[in-house]
Fold each of these.
Amino acid sequence: MAPQETDANGVLFEHDVETKDAALAKTPVQQAGDEKWETHYVWHIIIFVPLVYISGVYGGYLFLVSATWQTKIFTIFLYVSSLLSVTAGAHRLWSHKAYKAKWPLQLILTFFHTSALQYSVINWVRDHRMHHKYADTDADPHNSQRGFFFSHVGWLMVGKHLEFERKSMGLDISDVEANPILQFQRKYYVILVTIICFILPTIIPVYFWNETWINAILVPGMFHRFCVYNAIGFVNSALHKWGYKPYDKDMAASEIHLFNYLLLGESAHNYHHAFPWDYRTSELGISTTFSLTTAFINLFARIGWAYDLKTISDDIIRKRVMRTGDGSHQIWGWDDKDE
């Protein structure tokens, strides 16, 4: 059995040490003293992102002034389902293994993840595990130390940093690479994206409720995508720059509760980096701070499609808050830390 390695954030990485070292030795960028690194621009993303922003803003205008009520509901459904596929699927299920899911739920999450246009789940998991293992360093794909724009969207426009290339060789993602549903998505990603992400959201409004082509293209198509991109981007940028740090003041990851509804329950980012294996991604789950993602997982847990849900005990949370928090915790806050 391969040994387990746990990083400072508590993320488990299983790997074969000999295999990792051998891979590193064979990688050209690993040569001793080779620190040369040049930025390589990803031009199709550089062109595509401004297109998404411009058409997305105009699509938002059309959402308000001319789209039919069916198109508005359809767009909101696409936003929620796309974001849930990331928060409940690529993030909590596959990146952190915070719970397990049977194949029907995995299929649903993979379908809508394709609609979110976030690259394949396997690619997403690789980047996210690197983010936790090497948070806010050059090995972090969206390193917040390189500025707000970079961590929000700019990281997609350039090639990965040399440190990412070096250290990702030792990252084990064999669990997701062995998943047949995720293998299928990665293998046929371009075809699936063309159909699920671009064709279906356009033709469904036109042929089912006589929406105009321009509204169908720009509202459920580009406005939906613009909203998803920015929601996910805010986790990487704003939640690593501003906000409270009730669980660990030494982390860049923070919490801005105003983002909670926009992110469907992902705003407790300082908690998540302190306890990444908690399926709720927040201390209170949905008891006082509503988390649609947690409610979604709980719903499927009731019918048996989600199981082995991992949580953290109140005692462990309290000890972490008292030891490393910034004093802003709503229960064990400043007064308790001063005692």
Amino acid sequence: MGGYTGQANLTLSQGVRMMFYVLYPNETSFKTVDEVPDYVDKATAYFIVMLILEMLISSFWKGRPLRINDGLTSLSAGVISRLPDVAFRGVEVTTYIYMWNNFRMIELPWDSPWTWWLTFLGVDFGYYWFHRMTHEVNIMWAGHQTHHSSEDYNLTTALRQSVLQKYFSWMFYWPMAFFIPPSVFAVHLQFNLLYQFWIHTELINNLGPLELVLNTPSHHRVHHGRNPYCIDSNYAGTLIIWDRMFGTFVPEKDKVVYGLTHPINTFEPFSVQLQHLIYIWNTFWSTPGFSNKLSVIFKGPGWGPGKPRLGLPEELPKVTGDEKPYNPKASLALQIYSSIHFILLLAIYQHMFEAKQMLSSIMILARIVYILLMLTSLGFLLENRQVVNLLPCSCFI
């Protein structure tokens, strides 16, 4: 089995601070990767609590209830993105360890606060460039577009992750492997991801002076917008300073309309994950000339023959602010039914992670297949498709 195996228990204070990247070096320094806890897995309870709080505040204070269909689609994508981690250590850490073992030039001390803070900056810098390239290289956008496909902006959107994206990110962290121990890298890779959860909300407006340094909900709302002024901006993970340094920072101005410039209009999880990859495949074969075919893969999503690398901004669809999200009618009973089934499915998913050391490979594979079938069925239900076979939720519990 792969993944993180460290069993460090977190106090409530540490758990809360973990979500905002304010744990200290002496709390999160480990000699080996195997000692590093699976912080993302331990964050599940905090995800749920924060989701519920946002949902209640948004419904009863702001008068904007969560759209069940979009929210469950985002949560389903989050579940799918984590399924490979049941059996395998993440490709980012695995390749990093390989580089460290074979090519490191110096070895910084794993228990030094200086190493901890240097890694904090290094991981965030690497993430900026990785994130930027996912928007500027079409094949990488095929993974990242999943995260942008939600037409809502709330904490469920943070969990709408791609199962493909992690297979492009590893190369952006390799230079750190020449001198920073893998255990320190593995800690910050997780914290950088966790920090980005809470910034996916419309409930927080402006954070004053912190807006100058940190990536905030305001900055990240712009990043998720399909308004022309929002495109290709604010790639930060934790620190917004990289966008300010490299000319990609854009402040929040007009009302942000969320989602892809060409909405996918589906809640079916495989389409959410793979639709742009299929588009690239079809475009590759229909585009004449070998050089143009390569450009389809490695230039921007908006590129076409005769256009600049990132396409023409004037060809972006107009945004009026009156756009309506894809929202097939669903009865209250159907929404409750779908939510209950997803909660039961989540219990199966969580138990699979907790018991992965005791489950056989066949049982893990069976649960993964079951989860995928069930999520697909829920996606069909939320779209009001007529033909759908729901498996009973108890068959693999």
